[in-house]
Amino acid sequence: MDRRDAPQADVIPISTAPSAPQAGTQAARSTRPAGHGRVGVVLVSHSAELAAATGALAVALAHSEDPAPVATTGGSLGDGPGTSAVLIAAAARRVDQGHGVAVLSDLGSAVTTVRTLLAEAEEHGLPFPVRFANAPFVEGAVAAVATATAGGDLAAVLDAAEEMYRQHKI
C-alpha cells in the first residue's frame, strides 16, 4: 500500500503500516529466543530517506550479524516531508522486544511530535518503557544502536546517545 493510499486514521495495523518490515528482511527476522531481546531503537526524521540511511549506517557500524532492532520513519502520511505520530508509534511497537525503546529525532518539530506522543504513550499503544534520547541524530543513532546491540539496557542506550552531545569534533 502506498502512503498516499493509507487511510487517514489514528491507528494503522502494524503489518500494513508504510514503514512495516517486509518478509525476509533483517527487521522481520528474529533469531533470539523469547525473553532474550534487546532495547529497540527508533529513528525519526522529516525524510524517510534520511532516517533509513542513518539507520543503515548505525547498523553497519555496530559490526554485528545480529544487530539490535532498529526502525526508521520519516515523512508524513501524505507522502511529504514531516513526521507522523502514527508512523512513530508503529515503529516503536515493531522494535519492542520487552526491554524498552529509545527514540531519536532530527529537527525541532520532530522532537515536538515525539515528545507529544510519549506524553500520551498509553493512549497510543506504545510499548513500555519508551524514552526520548536528547542526542544528535546521526552520532546518537550510531551510539544507541551499538550499545543496544552489545546488550546495554535502556539507560545505557540513552546515555550512550546523549554522550554524543559532549563529544567535540575538534
Record keyword descriptors for this entry.
single chain, 170 residues, alpha/beta, four-stranded parallel sheet, 5 helices, 4 strands, globular, disordered N terminus
Can you tell me about this structure?
The chain is built from five helices and four strands, in the order E-H-E-H-E-H-E-H-H. With 170 residues, it is α/β, with parallel strands linked by helices. The protein has a four-stranded parallel beta sheet with strand order 2-1-3-4, with helices on both faces. Helix 1 packs across helix 4 (137-149) and helix 4 (137-149) runs antiparallel to helix 5. The protein starts with 39 loop residues before the first strand and ends in a 7-residue tail after the last helix.
Summarize the structure.
The chain is of the alpha/beta class.
The number of strands is 4
Rg, Å, rounded? 15 Å
Give the amount of beta strand, in percent: 5-15%
Mean pLDDT: 83
Low-confidence stretches: 1-35
- Distance from N terminus to C terminus (CA atoms, Å) equals 46 Å
| Helix/strand structural class | alpha/beta
Largest sheet: 4 strands, parallel
Strand order of the largest sheet: 2-1-3-4
Question: What's the shape?
Answer: globular
Number of helices: 5
**Proportion of helical residues:** 25-40%
Compressed to H and E, one letter per element, the order equals EHEHEHEHH
List the helices and strands and how they pair.
Layout: E1 40-45, H1 48-61, E2 70-74, H2 85-95, E3 101-105, H3 108-119, E4 130-132, H4 137-149, H5 154-163
Parallel strand pairs: 1-2, 1-3, 3-4
Helix pairs in contact: 1-4, 4-5
